[in-house]
Design brief:
little secondary structure
Length: 69
């Protein structure tokens, strides 16, 4: 008579461990989120006076070529 009676299962979690291990944030995740203007076709073509930003990338002088070249 009591063969098919369901019994409550024991909790399977031990000490409430998280499902995923913690990981440190990457440098990209640490960057601030700025609300920039939305890209528009007129801004991409250059029809508006949007401000632009440029950066200088220092490069080493090219090495001297071999005499056989």
């Amino acid at each position: 008579m009591g063969l098919f009676v369901q019994r409550p299962e024991e909790p399977s979690e031990w000490a409430g461990l998280p499902g995923e291990p913690a990981r440190p944030q990457t440098k990209a995740e640490l960057l601030p989120d700025h609300d920039g203007p939305a890209a528009s076709p007129t801004g991409l073509v250059g029809l508006t006076n949007d401000s632009t930003t440029s950066i200088a990338i220092p490069l080493d002088e090219p090495a001297e070529a071999a005499h056989g070249d």
